[in-house]
Task: structure prediction
Amino acid sequence: MSDEPAGWTEEDDAMVTYESLPDWHPSLFVDVFRTGLDMEQANASELLGCAFVTPESLGTWEDFSRARSVFSSGLKISTTALFGIGAPDVAYVRLVETDAYLNDDIDAVPATMHVTLVWRPEIAVVPISSWRIHHLGEAIEPTLVPRTAAGFDPRTQA
Result:
């Protein structure tokens, strides 16, 4: 007899939810960043800086060891992105501590940290997504984020 669970699980539902996110979704960008943190190339920090973070925040990331520590801590990336009030070009992806794979009530699982992203099409390297990560920790007010596409709403893309 197999130890594998029989039938459809909450984890399967979560995978369908994740796979159904549009290409421009900020949670996907954060997940690709998380994956990129595992690079073992000599110039990994340079590559991460060029591909994922705002040039204005590059000096605060150092060797990305803090980011590696956060993402290896077991926090999960929420698939529900929040957008700045009056600033849809700024997004917040919640990092949450939970055993659940899905949660319909964001208030039931408070964020442990936020990833603050900004839509920066002039420095985009990922097709269909122009997100750049500006900060990992507390959510940063949109007026304090280096915005070059102020007012653009990525959710309007097909």
DSSP finds five helices and four strands in the chain. The radius of gyration is 16 Å.
